[in-house]
Every structure is written in structure tokens, then in C-alpha cells.
Write a structure and sequence with these properties.
With 441 residues, this protein is α/β, with parallel strands linked by helices. 20% of the residues lie in helices and 21% in strands. The protein has a six-stranded mixed sheet with strand order 1-13-12-11-14-10. A six-stranded mixed sheet has the order 2-16-15-19-17-18. It is globular and about 65 Å long.
Length: 441
């Protein structure tokens, strides 16, 4: 097994990590929702109307530009609401579960690509370039799978997998038949994966070592004109289970973490479950909390009356902006004040000690100054600062030369945290990728 050691990056240790690996079953959700924005790159066209019944695994909508790409219902029930926003943008498709056991069974004698598309698991994968749902018409050079998550308070994917580990090898076989190259799995030090036909690489280093894009860039980078698929080990196991049983499992294990959680733990529920059910009696002070679907770097801010977002495995609850009039502000010399740099005295102690963070940005946008901050947080062979400048200026040639085909917004999340210019780097990268995709289509 090859070992890749990464020196760039940084591990952020927050209060509210899980101390007990036990899994608690949540109550049955009152509502379940599918959020189209979770599946970037497809435009939804509804197949079901409000008031219609759906079985688990039955299509709710397909991509306007490619009807083969489908998003399915995670539970059996009735379509309660198609919630729309500005310009009739579909914000959420809400389902009221009926407790029934209706579930779609797939014919495994059909081509694997067709089964994946019909099952809804296709939209759980991403392609590079552009970090969008893969195009069914393009055969990937390789498939990259990450088996661990290195983000702050991230769940242990071995626990999330549970007994689904038995389906990993079958998932590798299926994806291996859809690529001209290899299925490459990145694991952390000490982690084992039973997948004889996969190429397994161990990654040692701080976050973002668990990012699948970082793993690809440090093994077989993506070049212009090439396409690769990326996914996590949980999705790989779902694919293996589908091609073993003929059905998709929409159950999930969610890590509820963060300083404002009474007892951080793993909860078993269903994909897209309402947060009121998942977080019932879990938080200490909901009014003074910020709920994030995902981790604090790449997650989405949500309200208590909303739902789990893809990839449906992590909720972080941190304090909201509760100290707007802090004495002396950034100039405070409190020894507990955190800084990656030697601005405060934190570096004299241990940076591995869990610290308290709230939702404040603590500063406004400033001019980009070349300091090497991005490069220190990005273990990829690209010049992050120059790439961001090229994206902002809209220089497509420079964007291509500087490696935009290799990246996704999540790869710049840590750099955004460390950025003294306070730029929204993930938003800038997302807009750059979308513009480039539009230009090339």
C-alpha cells in the first residue's frame, strides 16, 4: 500500500467532539425533503406533483438537460409540498412519510450505468472538472473514493458505514466496469479496506487530507481534457448494496457535534429527515445556536425547521454571534484567543487543544495580498492566490494554466478560514467553475 505524507494544511480542534461511538435511533421524521441545490449541475424537472404518492426510490424529478439523471424519494409517502423561491427556483421537495414499506426494486441484469441512473445514486457522485454531477455520456479516466473525513468534528466514516462495509468490494467492481482506469481509495493511517480490485493509498497529514480532490492531486492529477469521478466510501457501499440486493438503502448515520450540543453522538435516521426530529432535545440553547448541515468549513447554514442536506452524515451546532461588543475586540490579549499565526499567544501552548468558536467572521474584506496563506493550507500543486485572482478577473486561459480543472470549492475551505483578506473563496471558486463549464459547453 502506497503512503502519501502531506505537510500542508491544518487541523482545527473544536469543542463538541463525539466521545462515545454508540449509535442512537432517532424518531421517525415528520417530513423528509430533497434539496435540489445539493446536486450541483442539474436543473430539476418535476415528475411528481403535490399530493401524489411515491415509493422509496421512485423518481421525484430528472435533469432538464438529460432525462436519464434522476433524483429519487428517500421514503415512501405523499409529496406534501414543492417549495419554490425566486424565479420559481425549487428550494425543496417535501414528503410526508406514511410509514409504508414500498420501495423500488431494480433489475440488475440491465447495464450498470442505467441502474445507477435510475436508482438516484448517480447524483451522489461528482466529476472533475467542474465538481458537478457526472455526465452519463463521458467515461471517466479513474474513480477516486475517500474513506475518511478530516474536517473539524467530522464523523468517523467507519462508524457511519457500520455493517455496510461488506458491500464495498462489490461497489468497486461496479465502478471499475465504468472506467478505463482504476478505482482508487484513499484511507487514513491505520484504516483497512477490503477491496482487492481497488488501488488503496494511505494519506498521512492534517486537513484537508481527507478531501478526495487533494487525494487525486497527490496521486494521479486531473489534466485538461480528462474526466474523473469522485465520491466517498459511504456512497461506494450504497452502490455495492444496490448491486447485491437490487434496492437502495436510504438510512444514514448522522454525527451531531458542536459546542452547543448537550451530548455529541451518532444518530440513525433517514436521508433528508427534518431537523426538528433529528435535533430533538439535543441542543443546549437553540435560540443562541447556529445549525450547520456539514462541517464548519464547507457546511450550509440551516434553520431548525429545515432538513438534512447531502451527504446526510453531519450536523454541527456552534454558538451564534453572542459577543458583538467584546472588550478590545481583536486586540484583546486573552490567552484563550485562537490564531493559526503567531498573532496571539496561543502558539505558546498546544494548538491541539479544543477551542470555542462562534459564527463571527471577525473582520471585513480586504485587498488580496500575496502572503502564501493559501498555499500553506492547500496541499496541491497549484498556486492558489494566482488562481483566485484569475477567477475574479475572468481570465479563462490563466484559470486553465493554474489548475482549475483539479479543484472544487471544498479544497479552498481551509484557505478561506485562514485568509486575512476575508474573501469568500469557495463562492469565488464555484462561480469560476460554473463560468468555465458554460464557456466549454
Amino acid at each position: 500500500m502506497a503512503i502519501v505524507r502531506l505537510k500542508k494544511g491544518f487541523d482545527i480542534h473544536l469543542l463538541g467532539d463525539i466521545s462515545d461511538n454508540g449509535i442512537v435511533a432517532a424518531s421517525r421524521p415528520q417530513t423528509v425533503a430533497v434539496i435540489p441545490d445539493d446536486f450541483h449541475g442539474i436543473i430539476p424537472r418535476m415528475e411528481k406533483k403535490e399530493g401524489e404518492h411515491v415509493d422509496a426510490g421512485e423518481p421525484l424529478y430528472h435533469d432538464k438537460n438529460d432525462e436519464a439523471i434522476k433524483v429519487v424519494a428517500p421514503v415512501s409517502g405523499t409529496v406534501k409540498e414543492v417549495r419554490r423561491g425566486e424565479r420559481r427556483h425549487i428550494d425543496a421537495i417535501v414528503i410526508a412519510p406514511d410509514g409504508g414499506d414500498g420501495i423500488v426494486t431494480h433489475d440488475l441484469k440491465r447495464p450498470a450505468r442505467d441502474v445507477l441512473l435510475d436508482s438516484g445514486l448517480w447524483v451522489m457522485m461528482r466529476q472533475r472538472p467542474y465538481d458537478v454531477v457526472p455526465s452519463p455520456s463521458v467515461r471517466p479516466r479513474d474513480v477516486f473514493v475517500t474513506a475518511f473525513d478530516s474536517a473539524p468534528l467530522a464523523p468517523d466514516l467507519d462508524i457511519v458505514l457500520g455493517d455496510k462495509r461488506q458491500y464495498i468490494a462489490r461497489g468497486v467492481e461496479v465502478l471499475g466496469s465504468l472506467t478505463d482506469g482504476k478505482v482508487r481509495i484513499g484511507v487514513r493511517e491505520g484504516q483497512t479496506i477490503d477491496a482487492p480490485s481497488a488501488v488503496v493509498t494511505t494519506f498521512v497529514g492534517p486537513h484537508p487530507a481527507g478531501n478526495v480532490g487533494v487525494q487525486a492531486a497527490n496521486t494521479v492529477p486531473v489534466n485538461k481534457g480528462e474526466t474523473v469521478w469522485t465520491l466517498d466510501i459511504v456512497t461506494l457501499a450504497r452502490i455495492g448494496e444496490l448491486f447485491t440486493t437490487g434496492r437502495v438503502s436510504h438510512d444514514t448515520v448522522v454525527a451531531i457535534t458542536g459546542e452547543m450540543v448537550q451530548e455529541p453522538r451518532y444518530v440513525k435516521t433517514v436521508m433528508g429527515a427534518d431537523l426538528e426530529t433529528v435535533l430533538k432535545n439535543e441542543t443546549t440553547n437553540l435560540a443562541m445556536s447556529r445549525i450547520i448541515c456539514g462541517n464548519v468549513l464547507t457546511g450550509v447554514k440551516v434553520e431548525p425547521d429545515q432538513w438534512l442536506c447531502a451527504p446526510y452524515r453531519h450536523i454541527t451546532v456552534i454558538p451564534e454571534n453572542n459577543k458583538p461588543d467584546e472588550f478590545m475586540g481583536w486586540a484583546s490579549l486573552r490567552p484563550s484567543r485562537f490564531s493559526i499565526y503567531r498573532t496571539f499567544t496561543t502558539w505558546l501552548g498546544s494548538l491541539n487543544k479544543p477551542v470555542s468558536f462562534d459564527s463571527r467572521i471577525k473582520g471585513g474584506e480586504r485587498a488580496i495580498v500575496r502572503t502564501g496563506e493559501y498555499d500553506a493550507m492547500l496541499p496541491m500543486d497549484i498556486y492558489g492566490e494566482f488562481l483566485i485572482k484569475a477567477i475574479i478577473s475572468g481570465d479563462i486561459d490563466k484559470m486553465e494554466q493554474l489548475g482549475i480543472y483539479e479543484i472544487a470549492p471544498e479544497d479552498f475551505a481551509l484557505a478561506e478560514f485562514a485568509d486575512t483578506s476575508k474573501l469568500e473563496l469557495q463562492r469565488i471558486v464555484r462561480e469560476g467553475l460554473d463560468k468555465l463549464r458554460a464557456e466549454m459547453s
